[in-house]
Amino acid sequence: MERRKQAILLALPASLALLFFFILPMVYILIRTLTENGTADFTEFFTDPFYLDILWTTIRVSLVSTAVSLLLGYPTAYYMARTTSRLKQAMVIVILFPFLVSAVVRSYGWMVILGTNGLLNQLLLGLGLISEPLKLLNTEAAVIIGMIHLLIPYMILSLVGVLQSIDPNVEYAAYSLGASPMTTFRKVVFPLSTPGIISGCVLVFTMSMTSYVTPKLLGGSKFRMMATMVVQEINVNFDWGAASAISYILLAVILAVQVVVVLVTGRYMKRMGGGKNA
Length: 278
Prior knowledge:
Elements: H1 2-37, H2 40-47, H3 49-82, H4 87-96, H5 103-114, H6 119-126, H7 140-165, H8 168-176, H9 181-192, H10 194-209, H11 213-219, H12 226-235, H13 240-272
Helix pairs in contact: 1-13, 3-7, 3-10, 5-11, 7-10, 7-11, 8-9, 10-13, 12-13
């Protein structure tokens, strides 16, 4: 009982800060939007193919960015969790270094690389692989590339902690029983690392859904995602009601995805040691 009181007291300052600076303002804006326009803005969103296409584009880009981040980040995280080489320290620095650079700067860097006269096109032209520059900038692919570069460190850091907690002796035991490296990974390592996979995917997906700078700079003015539409509704159309509706729909989609993930994986994570009783 005493430990529970201590935990509540420790969580109280952060909880109050979230209540006054996040939850209450959001509730106030929602009530004001419903009072002024009712549900008209929400109804327009779900009945207009233009807005529905933007929602689907946002979800698609976020899912692809999350999947590729997992595919690229898992081997890196596994190597970092198991290696005793000094290279591990260099890899940690490389992974943490992007956090010191603004997303704006990183997006401009990709603009230099992916532009019509950018480094990538110049390299492909020099190697004779293409006869004319590819249109890479201001496309969905450019946005996905920028998202992956921006968010893959979060995936790797989420996985490293879980993989490091897996006792290597468990793998050695599987080897001693005749399991191949692939079988050991498939039946031992991967299931035990599921909590890290889930937390990393949820984190990357959420940040992709709410990203603004990368889609705006790498996607151009014609490429729209939910976050860029919020800014456009406010700064261009001066429609605060529509901007509020888009914001709350985006929040609802993210929360729905997280609830589904928790419900689907909750029992499995408890069995693997990642549940609330772990």
